Amino acid sequence: MVFSSTIFLFIFLPLIWLLHLALPSVRARNLLLSVASLLFYAFGEPIYCLLMVLSVAVNYAAARAIAAPDGSRRRIPMVAAVLFDLLMLGVFKYAGFLVECINLLPLIELPVPAIRLPIGISFYTFQILSYVVDVYRGDTPVQTNPGDLFLYIAFFPQLIAGPIVKYHDIAAQIDCRTVTADGAAQGMRRFVVGLGKKLLISNPCGMLTDTAFAAESPGSPLAWLGAIAYCFQIYYDFSGYSDMAIGLGQMFGFRIAENFNYPYISGSIREFWRRWHISLSTWFREYVYIPLGGNRCGRAQTVINKYIVFFTTGLWHGASLNFVVWGLFHGTMQMIEQILRPTERRWLRPLWRVVTLAAICLSFVIFRADTMADAARYLGAMFAGGSPAPALALLDPYTLFILALAAIFSAPVLPRLAACLGPRRAEIAGRVLSIPLLILCVMALASSTYNPFIYFRF
After folding, report:
1. Which of 34, 65, 292, 346 pairs with 303 at a CA distance of 20 to 30 A?
2. Which of 20, 168, 277, 317 is catalytic?
């Protein structure tokens, strides 16, 4: 089930929210949300509900063993839980890719397993890993109620595509929270904004992207148009989903941290990763980069640590060489920035901002392509010249309008307008505009069957 579907918008969400309001206690509300989350996941992945329940059960037991009073061997259950989680992720996400790599060796031809990827496994696995590791470190108390731990993992607003929530950031809210009229209204408006990002901007950009990438011999104008459209598509797709998740959480009394902060205004790749998919970059910093030694072990080891992080970041996104190369490309750009230090020279900052945007755009071509051969072909087309006619044929007034909106709202225009209006007027404007925005979203949903979510594949 996706947020931008009629069954979710008009049946599932209103029913669960009204039942949630009607229940008298947090315990009863938690049980409702756990059952609702299981139904939400089972709508698309009924068999893999058992996998998620198994993951929660194993990690619950491991965390209890870690926190046992006689925990002299507390490292053993921690390592066992981490290995179990990585094994589950490896089997379901990387087994086929690993066999394909082995088959590249001479005289080896193993059958490639066709294992269907469970939706959201990368996200909920990283959440449960962070919980077990934090219990081991003493950063969070162990959860003795398995139902509450299950709710933390399976909470449907952030189950499928994040944000990745650390347990200690939400533990108190599971035990005690209130739903206020103002908070629910703000959550609804935030959800509608995310829905608008997805349906009104990301989907039209996605259709433009698909046309450009499907062309057999795109000229440079069409290739650049497709690459730019994909930058907008993936940003508004994923940030829109995050907005909807944050808004839904607020409707049920939860506060989920921001996941995007206008990444396309970044002046460096390093800044880009402080603004893009914040929960993922934070996870890798806290659970991979710092445990490896961070930047405390000399320059050479720091470089190795950063490349490990970007390698695993790319691999996390998918079992494909494209994602690995994409991650290593970003790592290499950070190394170049560290050597040149362009942000320390004021006169270089505007130029480096353009370089950063170009690098992001080129890297997303690698991310979008099915294979590295396809990526190389498309990147070559971007610099091969050609007639602008195919690109111009796609740029009708509606498409130009959508691209203009995408460019404008990828910058912090709305926060600045809100600051100019003041809190009270901004609140009134948000209430007034959310209604026609919702109507436009419903109209777009009713008139189109094109509604993919990019990050569902991860």
Report:
1. 346
2. 317
